[in-house]
Every structure is written in structure tokens, then in C-alpha cells.
Amino acid sequence: MRSLREALAPFPKGAVAFGVVMLWLAVALSPAAAQDDEFVPDDEQVRDTEAIDFGSVDDLLATDEEVLSDPTLYTYDPGARRDPFRSLLKRRENKEQIEERPDGPAGLLIDELEVEGLFVLDGSPVAQVQSSSQQTSFLLRPGDQLWDGDVVRITLEEIVFKQSVNDPTALKPFREVVKRLNPSK
């Protein structure tokens, strides 16, 4: 392989120096040429930008939230998914706070339940549970619907619930909750 000196030997010394200088100028001046092409707003465009009130953006977002919260103007069937049009920055309200829960097992929250007894009635497993928010106890069977989930399985040692999870970052829209009979009572 030839060296650089051997490769440049056929050219006169002045031509090589001239080529190097021209290459250096082209590289050095190219950013300057690009800066000349930048957009420079005139005084009228600057005045228009100053006249824009960026505080009104919050007002527009609040108006959008009002439209989304009015069920007569906007409906969306989430199908066990988060509503993509609702802001993630707005604090999430719990289902318990929005609606009043019904009486009976349909109004029970899984996290508030305490297992009082597990037994078999007429050949099918039954769990006796009591909620910390209500003074009466209830009998639950597999498949019963609760406020935030349903009963999956009952054995003589435990009751398994499938609890709905309202978290957009969760991999599954539910979690399995196992409650055991408390032997100390």
C-alpha cells in the first residue's frame, strides 16, 4: 500500500497546499453558512408571540375535562381498559367515593372482608365473611359478585377472590386475593 506522500507525488506542492486550504475553508465556513439560513422572525411576528396568553392553555384543558365528564356529551366504553382521553395527571377518584355501595354482598370490598368460617352446605363450599364497614355477616359461594371483584374458589382453608385493579400500569386488570380462616377466633 502506498503512503500519502507517494500518492500526492504527481501533484505540484502548491496544488496540494491549495487543496488543503480550500478543504479547510469549506469545513470551517459550512456552519456559518448554515447559521445564515436560520429563521429570524421580524418584529411583527415577535409582537404576535408576545400577545399570546399561555395561561389560557389551562383554561382550554379545564374545558376539555368538563366536556369529558359530562355523560350527555361524551361516552366511552372502556372494556376493562383505562379511558385514553382522561388525563393521567388528574388525581384518580376511587369507585367507592363516587358511588354509594349497595347493601349485601354486592356492596362488599374484598380488602374489608374478614373470614369468619369456611364450611360445606348441600355439597358446595360456603364462606362466612364479615365486613369491617357493616355489622352483619354474609355467606359467599363461588361465583358471587362483590363490589370490587368476585369469589373464585372456596376450600376448607381459604377463600380466593379475583379483585379488579384500576391501574393503567398493571399487566392484568385484576389480582388474586387469598383470605384464610383466622384460627385465633
In short:
This protein has 185 residues and is of the alpha+beta class. 30% of the residues lie in helices and 23% in strands. The protein contains five helices and seven strands, in the order αααααβββββββ.
What does this structure look like?
By secondary structure, the chain is an alpha+beta fold. It is 30% helix and 23% strand. It has helices spanning 4-8, 13-36, 43-51, 56-69, 95-98; strands spanning 113-121, 124-131, 137-140, 145-146, 149-154, 158-164, 174-180. The strands form two sheets. The chain has a four-stranded antiparallel β-sheet, with no helix packed on it. Strand 4 (145-146) and strand 5 form a beta hairpin. The longest helix is centred in the first third of the chain and has 24 residues, at 13-36. The chain is elongated and about 110 Å long. The termini are far apart. 8% of the residues are buried. The model has no long low-confidence stretch (mean pLDDT 76).
Instruction: Give the N-terminus to C-terminus distance in angstroms.
Output: 92 Å
- Shape verdict: elongated
Q: Can you give the mean pLDDT? A: 76
Name the beta content range: 15-25%
Question: What is the chain-wise order of helices and strands?
Answer: HHHHHEEEEEEE
Q: What about the largest sheet?
A: 4 strands, antiparallel
Q: Structural class, from helix and strand content?
A: alpha+beta
Helix content, binned percent: 25-40%
Q: Please count the helical segments.
A: 5
Name the strands of the widest sheet in spatial order.
4-5-6-7
Question: How many runs of DSSP E, i.e. beta strands?
Answer: 7
Rg, nearest Å: 36 Å
Question: Uncertain segments of ≥5 residues (pLDDT<50)?
Answer: none
